[in-house]
Amino acid sequence: MIIQPMNELLQGIAPLPHLGVIRAVGEDAARFLHSQLTQDFSLLGMHQARLAAFLTAKGRMQASFVGFKRSETEVLLVCSADLLAPTLKRLSMFVLRSKVKLTDASADFVLRGLAGSAVAASTATPWSKTDAGDASVVHLYPAAGQARALWGAPVGTPEPAGSPIPTEVWLWGEVQSGVATLTAPLVDMFVPQMLNYESVGGVNFKKGCYPGQEVVARSQFRGVIKRRAYLAHAASAVAVGAEVFSAQDPEQPCGTVVQVAGNPGGGFDAIVGLQTQAAQDALHVGGPGGVALQLLPLPYALLEDI
Fold this sequence. Notes:
Elements: H1 4-9, E1 12-15, E2 19-25, H2 29-36, E3 49-55, E4 61-71, E5 74-80, H3 81-92, E6 101-104, E7 109-115, E8 129-132, E9 135-139, E10 148-154, H4 167-177, H5 213-221, E11 227-234, E12 243-246, E13 249-262, E14 268-275, E15 283-285, E16 291-296
Antiparallel strand pairs: 1-7, 2-5, 2-6, 3-4, 4-5, 7-10, 8-9, 9-10, 11-14, 11-16, 12-13, 12-15, 13-14, 15-16
């Protein structure tokens, strides 16, 4: 792999057509989301954002979001576009008497990815938010040594200044950050800790109840987290949702490809969810003779190691 040219490529502004926006509006907007998602939205300030997941009662992830307020009564949830419709439908089932309206606002907002010199406050902490007029800028985890942010604004807002970069390069940066975005092939497969969400600000263990909370808490405090997300490199393409196999047990899959993007220096980088005991083994996608995976260091410490 060639590292330096890739760092230089992750500089500029990228379109994000793979993402959509759910808008929650009403005096109970934050309170409602607080009751449904893994993060604390009741205490969400105007200069903060949240990484959060929507779970089943069994603690399995249905969707993941970057959420932030545009006002005290309006919260936007940015998620994978292929999960927006089913997620909006399921969330709406729980509104009941809450004073909140949920809608698909993807056509009302423009989303852009900012990287490197395009991020004005490059030293800002992940999940902090700054506003510039009608635009909101959510600071994300860095990738390949470059600061990154999510820019969102109503349609018609002047675009942020900077050189354009392809969406494919942004997607590679997403993988390199180690923070996974759930997509349709992965629904019902992971408890949040299996994707390291408790280590990157995606779970709050002090907030009130939400669907799946008991499973998440039990996994955390009883030490039963046996799967984790890892970074990996492959010489050829692998598919999201494909099974990963260990040479030590070629009959049973030990993991799943979670997210993948072309590496500008050659091959493909991926986030893979693996049984922790298999992390030292020789790994292949699809079967013992499939594409080989080389695990890479995570760019952040896991909570259990902090």
